[in-house]
Design brief:
The structure holds two protein chains of two kinds. By secondary structure, chain A is of the alpha+beta class. Chain A has three helices and five strands, in the order αβββαβαβ. Chain B has two domains: 73 residues, no CATH class; 146 residues, Rossmann fold (3-Layer(aba) Sandwich). In chain B, strands 8-7-6-9-10-11 form a six-stranded parallel β-sheet, with helices on both faces. In chain B, strands 3-2-1-5-4 form a five-stranded antiparallel β-sheet, with helices on both faces. Classes of the chains: A alpha+beta, B alpha/beta.
C-alpha cells in the first residue's frame, strides 16, 4: 500500500542491475572518508557503466569527472583503487573540491 | 563487489532490513553483515563488530576506529511516517515528510476526510488506526503522528505506536488536551507514555499548517539523529 518513493540508494542499485542485465560492465565509487566541509557524507555512491554513464554523486559535481575516469580504468583492469580529492593539491582548479573539504573515494568493480 | 553481494543487498532493502557492507580497503575483501549473521570474506568480531553495531543505530558509514583498514557502509531501510487523521495539517505534513525522504501513509476511517481531492499523492488507508497499525507494524525506522484531535482515532493509534518499535511518536493538541490524554492512558495502564512527543513538533512559533508541518518534520529529524537531545521549547 505504501507508495514507493525510490530513495537515492535504491535508484543506484536498480540502475546497476539494469546495466548488468544489458551486459555492461560496472564500477561502484564510494566515499570512505570525508573531512571538513565536503558536501556528501561517507557512504555516498557513484555508479559508473563502461559507456561512461553514471548515477549518484560523491561531491557537488566538482570531482565526478575524475571519478568516472578512474572507474573506467577499474572496469578495464578489475583492480579496486582509492582516490583522494582536496583543494590543497596542485590540480585544485581541475579536480578539487571548491568547498575546501577533502574526500577519499574507493572505486571497485562490480563482478 | 560480487554480484551475489549486490543481490543480497537489494534483497535486504526490499525486506526493509538494515544491512552493512564491510570492505577491507587494501584488497577489496568484503562481508555483508546483518543482525542474523554475516556472509563473505571477512570474519567480524570483538571491537570491530561492536563498532559496526553502534554505527547502525546512528546510520553512520565510515572507516572504523577499531580498524582503519576497514570501511563500513550502513544501508538503513527507508524511513516511514504514518499520519493518523486526514486533517488540514496532514495535507502539508505529507509532502513535507516526502521532501525529507520519508514514505508516507495516512490512516483515517472517515472517508469524507481522507479523499483523493485532498490528498492527491499520498496512500490513504480507510481503516481504524489500531487495525491499520497492527498491519503496518511500525519498526525502528518508522515515525507515527496522530493529528485527528479525536480520542476515538488518536488514542488507539498512540497506544499501538507506543507499544511498537517506532522511533518517534507524536500527538497534536494543547497541553490541556495532552494532560487529559495522559490521564486516560494512566487509567488504562498504558506504559512508555514518557516517549510521547506532545504537543508535537519543535517550538518554532509558527501557526500556519505549513509551519506546523515543518516543525513536526524538524522534530522527527532531531529525534532520529540526536535522540538524547532535550525538547526545544519556548
Amino acid at each position: 500500500m505504501t507508495r514507493k518513493i525510490e530513495s537515492e540508494i535504491d535508484e543506484i542499485l536498480a540502475q546497476i542491475q539494469r546495466w548488468r542485465q544489458e551486459r555492461h560492465r560496472v564500477a561502484l565509487a564510494t566515499i570512505v572518508h570525508a573531512w571538513g566541509s565536503s558536501p556528501r557524507p561517507a557512504g555516498s555512491h557513484l555508479a559508473v557503466a563502461d559507456t561512461g554513464s553514471f548515477v549518484g554523486s560523491v561531491s557537488g559535481g566538482c570531482v565526478e569527472g575524475a571519478v568516472v575516469e578512474a572507474a573506467l580504468k577499474v572496469i578495464e583492469d578489475g583492480k579496486p583503487r582509492e582516490l583522494e580529492f582536496g583543494v590543497s593539491d596542485e590540480q585544485a582548479w581541475s579536480v578539487g573540491l571548491a568547498c575546501g573539504g577533502r574526500i577519499s573515494v574507493y572505486v571497485e568493480p562490480v563482478e | 563487489m560480487k554480484a551475489a553481494t549486490l543481490a543480497a543487498l537489494a534483497h535486504a532493502r526490499a525486506a526493509r532490513l538494515p544491512v552493512a557492507l564491510v570492505t577491507r580497503l587494501r584488497d577489496g575483501a568484503q562481508t555483508l553483515y546483518q543482525r542474523n549473521g554475516q556472509h563473505g570474506d571477512l570474519l567480524l568480531e570483538g571491537a570491530v563488530l561492536a563498532e559496526i553495531e553502534e554505527r547502525c543505530a546512528q546510520d553512520r558509514s565510515g572507516r572504523l576506529e577499531a580498524d582503519a583498514g576497514l570501511f563500513v557502509r550502513w544501508y538503513a531501510p527507508q524511513r516511514r511516517l504514518i499520519i493518523v487523521g486526514a486533517v488540514h495539517i496532514a495535507q502539508t505534513l505529507a509532502p513535507a515528510a516526502v521532501m525529507a525522504g520519508f514514505e508516507v501513509d495516512i490512516v483515517d476511517p472517515r472517508t469524507a476526510f481522507a479523499t483523493r481531492e485532498r490528498f492527491p499523492d499520498t496512500p490513504l488507508l480507510h481503516e481504524w488506526p489500531d487495525l491499520a497499525l497492527a498491519r503496518l507494524k511500525p519498526d525502528a525506522h518508522t515515525a507515527v503522528v496522530a493529528l485527528s484531535h479525536d480520542p476515538k482515532l488518536d488514542d488507539p493509534a498512540l497506544v499501538a505506536a507506543l507499544a511498537s518499535e517506532a522511533f518517534y511518536v507524536g500527538a497534536l493538541g494543547s497541553r490541556r488536551t495532552h494532560a487529559a490524554r495522559l490521564e486516560r492512558f494512566a487509567a488504562r495502564g498504558v506504559t512508555s507514555t514518557e516517549r510521547l512527543r506532545a504537543p508535537v513538533g519543535l517550538d518554532l512559533g509558527g501557526r500556519s499548517a505549513g509551519e506546523i508541518a515543518i516543525a513536526i518534520v524538524a522534530e522527527i529529524i532531531q529525534v532520529r539523529y540526536r535522540p538524547g537531545q532535550g525538547k526545544l521549547r519556548g
